[in-house]
Amino acid sequence: GTRLAPKEKLDIPVLFMPDTMKMYEAVVVIHVMRENGENWPYEDSAALNKGLKSSVTVAENGGIQGILWIYPVHGIPEAPQQKLVPAVVRCRARQRVERRVEVLLTGVVPGANAMPATRNSAMVNTNKPANIQEEVQVTDGFSTTVELLYELQYQSNETKSQLGALVGMHLIQRERDTESGIITLIFNIVFAPNKPMRNEATLVVQCTTGGVWKFPMLFIATEPEVDDVINIEAVGLHKESIVGFKLTSQTR
C-alpha cells in the first residue's frame, strides 16, 4: 500500500542476522500497480516471452496489471575480527624467509556441536610459490566434506602489484576437532622482498556453503645488508682520487 510519486525514491531495508556460518538466500519482490487500478495496455499479451512473464502480472482483458522487480539476496556471514593481532612476517630486503601461520575457523559445521562464530584467531610461528586461490577439502569420519577456498587480499591494486610476486602461500596442514567442529588450517608463507616495505594484507578463507573468515597479516621488509664498502684513499690535498667499480642490473 505504499504510494510513490513520479521519480520518487523508495528505500527498502534488508536486515541480516545469521546464527550459523552458512549462506542464506532470500528474494525481495516489489510489485507495482497503478493507483487508479487501471491496467497498462499491452497489445499482444499472448506473445509475452518467458522472461517478461515472470516480471509482470497480466489481467484477464490482456492488459498488464502489475510489474514485478525481483532481487535475489545472498546473506554471507563473516566471522568477527575484533582484537585480532596481525600475523607478522618480517624479512630483510633481498633475502627469503618462511613462516607458518595457523588460523582457527569456528562455526564451520552447523549443528549442536558447532561453536557460534564468535571467535577466530591468527598466530605466526617461526619455522626454519604466487598467491593462488585453492580449494581445500576437510573431512571428518562420516560427516560430509567441507570445501574451503583461501587467498590473500590486499588493500589496493598498488599493494597487490608490490606484494603479488613477493609472497607465496601454501596450505600444509588441515584438521578438524570432532567435538567443537573447529577447523585448524596451517599455511606456509614465503616472503622474498626486493626492497624495504611495510604492507598489510588479509588472509581470506571462504566456505563453499557460505561463511567468510578474515585474518589480518603484516609484511615487513627491513633494510638490506650492505653490499660492499668502498674506500677512497687521498693522494694529496686538492687532488682527485678515483676508484672504479661495476654495477650489474638485475633486470633489463
TrEMBL record:
<dbReference type="GO" id="GO:0005929">
    <property type="term" value="C:cilium"/>
</dbReference>
<protein>
    <recommendedName>
        <fullName>CFAP47-like immunoglobulin-like domain-containing protein</fullName>
    </recommendedName>
</protein>
<feature type="domain" description="CFAP47-like immunoglobulin-like">
    <location>
        <begin position="78"/>
        <end position="222"/>
    </location>
</feature>
<dbReference type="InterPro" id="IPR058952">
    <property type="entry name" value="Ig_CFAP47"/>
</dbReference>
<dbReference type="Pfam" id="PF26579">
    <property type="entry name" value="Ig_CFAP47"/>
</dbReference>
<dbReference type="GO" id="GO:0007288">
    <property type="term" value="P:sperm axoneme assembly"/>
</dbReference>
